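Handout, page 2. Input:
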Amino acid sequence: MPLWSVNTRRALLSLSAAALLWGGIDDPAADAGSAALKDIEAKAVPQKNDAASDRPQAAKSGRPAAGSQNALRSPAAGNVYAARQQLYDQMSAATGIPWYRLAAVDQYERTLAGRSKSGGGAPDRLTGIHIPAPLWCGPLNPNQEDTSPASIAFFNGLGCDGSGDGKADPENDIDALYTIADHLMKYGNSASDFGIGVWEYYHNGRASQRIAQFAKLYDHFGRLDLSGSAFPLPLGSTYSFRSTWGTGRSWGGARIHEGTDLFTPHGVTVRSTCYGILETKGWNRYGGWRVGIRDIENRYHYYAHLSGFDKSLSAGDIVIPGQQLGWAGSSGYGKPGTQGKFPPHLHYGIYKDRGLTEWAFDPYPLLKQWEIAERKALKKNNKGR
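Output:
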């Protein structure tokens, strides 16, 4: 592509970002009162006397014209979802990458590990993007804390100055998000191009799948907050459960129980506990007829020993809390169709993906939390009638 075309494209993109910043975002969540967002808008106006750097400044390039990183470090001052949404929208306007794809990459990074310098559990940054120093600065760069765009580019590092302050700071949310966007833009704008760009960054099929799933969820619902939940069985049904995590199992070899058993009559409806993607559906010799759902927190919800599935559901479908998945039964412990080797119940497990490994944790506390929350909600609704 001729140089003039690149510069023209960047100029047009910067005009889109500037229009977004000056005009604001037509978003009810943003209008709901986020002091953090107002701070961003107040400080994000391009300055006339930007410091010179080796790359075009924000007003001349395809980067978002953004302001003080300190404005992004105070999500407690308002709605963190609205603050992130504004950042994604601003970056999307500047780069042409749909906001939900940027959000998906950011969310995947956030689910890998909770990163906090303070050690108090509160996030230090608005985004979760963490680019390792060898990638950011360049693997042969003798200064692995380099923030100079010129030397980073010389050593083929990915780090970019997205904020226009003359530095490429990996701890700056705007720089980090723009660096990811800059990498993705090299591969094109289609969904398949995005998938290739993600693969070329992570070289991990699991990461590519998760980010594609997250992007699908964000695009479908059109919002970031997908934190709703539901108890897996209707509260009006007959059921009982206790913590059965870690108890021994012998069929198929010595192993521990990685979940909670909810005993209930055959045929009771089994429901989705979350917003998510139906990742698996079919037979497993241990779990019988089972389904698996991936949620936005990168948790895999496993429902086993079903008597059957809801016929309208297929792998890849989006589900919501409380949606019917199938019915409780006693399938499993044998070839496809084996039933009745134990009392009917729902086996429910949760697995957390950490990038290279996926591990199970005890779902009992969450089940009790969801049960109590749903009972309170039903009680409140009944009083309001």
